[in-house]
Amino acid sequence: MTAEYEILTPETVPAYIDGKPELAGIVDTSTLEVAEVGDGNLNLVFVCRDADGRGICLKQSLPYVRLVGEAWPLTPERVIAEARGLAVAAELTPHLVPAFYNIDADQHVIAMENLMGWEIWRGKLNDGFIHRGVGAMLGEYVANLAFFTSVFALDQMEVKERMAEAINPELCRITEDLVFTEPYIEHDNNSFVDGIAADVAALRADADLRAEVGMMKFLFMTGAEALIHGDLHTGSVMVKMKDDGSGDARVIDPEFAYYGPVGFDLGAVLGNYLAARARAEAMDRSDEFKDWLAGLPQETWDAFETEMRRLWATRPDPTWTDSFLESWLAKVQKDSLGFGGCKAIRRIVGLAKVSDIETLPPDQHVEAAAMVLRTAATWIKDRNTLATVEASNDVFTAVVADIKANGVQVPPQEG
Q1: CATH 3.90.1200.10 residue ranges in the chain?
Q2: What pTM was estimated for this model as a whole?
Q3: Which of 9, 52, 229, 235 is the most exposed place for a label (fewest CB within 10 A)?
Q4: Architecture of the domain whose range is 13-112
């Protein structure tokens, strides 16, 4: 049982910082402005800035799911998992995550860099902004975690020790329920607009789809390949423009981090790209924007593969041959398609929707949601024959063409 602890407020944050020697000198608390900006589903987030423009960000895990309230208790110890994920990434890819300052295990507070001037990528995508190069940065991030926290780079005993330390059962249970189970049954956490009721019924009646979702859930529960972020989506990436006009990115919020399948992080990104693309199609955004979105999945995969091949030359164990790498990369790409489909479906049917779809007017909402559901179901069922991210794009293109031509009609039921 977790002992009670003080829940921070904007008024109490300065005194909290003053009481932590590890945070001394980062900001001047006498001139500190504090705002609670947590718009996620779980935590409090305090962004702080002093009169000299210096900043710090504090994130405190609550003893319940913020989205639901005290009726859904949840261990605040999850902040330890986030601190571990951030610290590892800060060592491997310091240019892709906020600076990590401190973890307070008693008060369940993590202190990190305040990314002043940065914005959540999902919001910028919703507004039609292009940040070139960000997709590749996410591929690089996943590859470094995949290589350096796995048996590819570490002794097997160290991997097992890290795996044991990184166990994150309550957060994993949330994913197991919300992503792989609840959307396919009647459940109080589910909700969706009436216009896609037939599509949802078709998903639930499709025995082949249900079986393949079960395979993805089994892999999520048993496939401990490397330390993964566990919730890598466009809402857990912050972006800004560089002086040269390209985009820059920082990955945040790794509280779902645990040892799992590498394809899950890549799939989470693909599933969120799908939601962004469906929004763009429903809104009939510019061809430039839609073409850029269409290239994001391949950009992320190519960067992941390129970085893995670069790192592969440093592996210490001759067991992992070049031929093994080819087979493993092929497997991860197929896993990514399956996980991407599962992550996309839950955002339409299950708890915790995405603003990409939810903020659309009713008719566009229905159209975009149907695009996501039909594309995602095909990704899951046909991932082994599709095999590549490029082929998954073709599925979306065909679904969009059908819906644009025929509207959102009742899809055929299978299984």
Answers
A1: 119-406
A2: 0.94
A3: 52
A4: 2-Layer Sandwich (3.30)
